Amino acid sequence: MSFYGLVDGTDASLKSYLGNLSGVDQVGAEARAAMLATRSIKTTSKRWAIDTAITMVDLTTLEGADTPGKVKALCTKAVRPDPTDSSVPSVGAVCVYNDMVSVARNHLDLIGGQHVPVAAVSTAFPSGRASMPVKIQDTQDAIDAGAAEIDMVIDRGAFLAGRYIDVFNEIVQIREVCGDKAHLKVIFETGELVTYDNVRKASFLAMAAGADFIKTSTGKVAPAATPPVVLVMLEAVRDFYEMTQVRIGVKPAGGIRNTKDAIKQLVLVNETVGPDWLNPKLFRIGASALLNDLLMQRMKMDDGYYTSPQYVTMD
Amino acid sequence: MSNRIDVKKTYKLFINGAFPRTESGRTYEVKNAKGVFVANPCLASRKDLRDAVVAARAAHAGWNKATAYNRGQILYRIAEMLEGRRGQFVEEIVNVTGATKTKADKEVTESIDRLVWYAGWTDKIASLAGSTNPVAGPFYNFTIPESMGVVAAIAPENPSLLGLIDAVAPIITSGNTVVVLASTKAPLSAMTFAEVLATSDLPAGVINILTGKKDEIAPWMASHMDIDALDISGLSSKKHADIKVAGAENLKRIHSFKSADPGRIIAFMEAKTVWHPIGL
User: Fold this and answer.
1) Does the distance separating the beta carbons of B226 and A307 come in below 8 Å?
2) CA distance A313 to chain B (A)
3) Quick one: which of A178, A188, A179, A266 has its CA closest to A224?
4) ipTM strictly over 0.85?
């Protein structure tokens, strides 16, 4: 493990790496996110944005009440979001709990959705409160079942207590389990990290430890993917790219429910890290209700009149 | 001479129980009968209509599930609140339309009485429009009228307050929610009526009021797939055919009315038939 030459794996080197980070200007970040949210995207650009956003959706169901039937229905929707329109692209991935990974993978393969990866939430999602061997086994199970992407949660308790090295080692170990079989997304649960400084710190910590993606939230805690938080993470990704020439992905999740919110996120991406990131390999949106709104907006653009939720599939 | 600066009201829209400005940021001038400027109400856009429909759709489940008795209480409460602010409405109608005080007073009185009348209908309409049907088998067979969902309405230009109430009250009586476009030339009493609604325990989104141009909003109302029915009483009859064509895509029920009668309530209900075995 090289950690990009930024950290040597010791507590001291990690502390000095994180200690050298500049702070976040809270007022400035909020103002900039609010300013970018006023951009108006119309006609052909909007159409492109909607289709791009669809390819970036990690179509998610993370409920205690998930059944194999519900997961299969979700997979069908992921491959062909609008049954009446084959020009709608497939979504970025299907995101489910660990035990549903094999159900999702098998069903996707069955219906011609080999190109849609399955993401599994891991490491005692959503709280992250379990021992390390359990977390490793949890992750290994998901990969064995066919997960190509692992969404792990960090130990927020350790992070807030200042035990950064514990969080760092945790990510490093899960990274090793993932190997080259699975992409690793690291969830911060920004709603529990409280400050933007902490979000920036967690971003740099996770990126150095080997995350492929950094993800805002579990979707179980509010506030989740607010525009300023996403902006702070995108800026961290941009700065990290300047330091290492490595592109890390970003995944906002939670609270992005309509097309307007999704397009705001795309504007943030374009204006902060640039168009290279407008790509499902580097930007995903964790959502469930969002997809229906994107489809309804798309229908409105095609048909010229406002549609109704009755004309999209139920979740 | 008073040094006090006038505190003038900003007339905004009424969507989901709140008073937002139009999304478009546009306004238009309302002048009184003598051509003198009165106010700058919002010129609603199709996106305001869309937002209002989302609010109305979300409100439908709860309003439809409320007991008829409860809906009647709330309609009566609206009448009570309107009675308490009678003077303000008379003044606004006189100011904008140039009607005499006596005539304006009569319109407000009729409006209040109309609300009380519809309040009474909430728990009686099912008996009038429903039925028990004789069938050849050991079953009870009931026809039960139910609300349709979201209904849009275009209120007539004149009378501006009574016309608006005649448009919305029959629609919500049965449990529908409504998005109404108020009189273009005299929208002020509609927006003041929204203040009455906001203090009447009416759940947010059950009545949504827009102000603007009929020709701009009506076609979007007609084509909107999440609007189940449309009252075009306030639209000139020359335009009715075009609106009906635009509304054909989702089989929208489109009606216009000349007067207040229980048929106005029934027009925005749909019949469900229920079979129930007769116990031996």
Assistant:
1) yes
2) 15
3) A188
4) no
> Which residue in A has a C-alpha nearest to residue B220's C-alpha?
A305
A201 is catalytic: no
Superfamily the domain A3-311 falls into? Aldolase class I (3.20.20.70)
Chain A residues with CB-CB distance to B250 below 8 A: 308
**Contact criterion met (CB < 8 Å) for B50 and A308:** no
Strands B131-132 and B37-39: unpaired
Domain spans, chain A: 3-311
Q: CA nearest B145: which of B115, B167, B123?
A: B123
Pairwise CA distance, residues B270 & B48, whole Å? 28
d(CA A251, CA A285): 5
* Cβ contacts of B225 on chain A, cutoff 8 Å: 305-308, 310-311
**Domains delineated in chain B:** 30-277 (3.40.605.10)
Query: B144 has which bridge partners?
Result: B272
| Cβ pair B35, B46 in contact under 8 A | no
Angle at alpha carbon of residue A213, lines to A208 and A216, rounded to 5°: 105
In angstroms, the CA B157 to CA B154 distance is 9
* pLDDT digits 0-9 by tens, A7-65: 998 999 999 999 999 999 999 999 999 999 999 999 999 999 999 999 999 999 999 99
* pTM for the structure as a whole: 0.90
Closest-CA distance, A50 to chain B, in angstroms, reads 18
Catalytic status, residue A151:
yes
Task: Give the residue from B180, B164, B150 showing the smallest Cα distance to B56.
Answer: B150
